[in-house]
């Protein structure tokens, strides 16, 4: 089974995360940041990933460390669950509408971490989730998943819709990239390695 369990404990956060790539969207998520829980739920459901995240962070300071570290742990778990990447599609993309918002997300599990993120938010926060940390979450995920990630809001007004469309788009793109192609017997690279 393509799965991973990651535990990460620092002086700022204590996180245990279990991910099954070939799931049904089952999820159990508790981070103490309501909007992050909502986004991770959307990610699991729309990617059909089974996800269990239990995180305790220094929310008496702010939500930054919790959001960043969950992104780092989720990316690491995804990369670990892909294993040697033999037989995967490798790249995935989504054009995700949500009411007035349209998000575009593309990912390549290339082994080369890079993130291009283009989205503007009007509100400073969604609940206690600072909107500036949507980009930081995507960057953290790309870094530890060893993926090239592009995420763009093509148009939209509502910040909740923008963030949610990006997370759902990430889910769809990750699911496509992680799919196994029965015709591919090796890693999807002309170099022979990823």
Structural write-up:
- Helices cover 35% and strands 31% of the residues.
- By secondary structure, it is of the alpha+beta class.
- It has a four-stranded mixed sheet with strand order 1-2-4-3, covered by helices on one side. A four-stranded mixed sheet has the order 5-6-10-7, with helices on one face.
- It has a single domain (3-178), classed as Imidazole glycerol phosphate dehydratase, domain 1 (Ribosomal Protein S5, domain 2).
- The mean pLDDT is 97.
Q: Can you tell me the number of structural domains?
A: 1
Number of helices: 4
Beta content comes to 25-35%
Highest CATH level, the class: Alpha Beta
How many strands, what sense, and barrel or not for the largest sheet?
4 strands, mixed
**Which series of helices and strands comes N to C?**
EEEHEHEEEEEHEH
Strands ordered across the widest β-sheet: 1-2-4-3
> Helical amount among residues, as a percent range?
25-40%
Task: Just name the CATH architecture.
Answer: 2-Layer Sandwich
Low-confidence stretches: none
Mean pLDDT across every amino acid position: 97
- Main structural class: alpha+beta
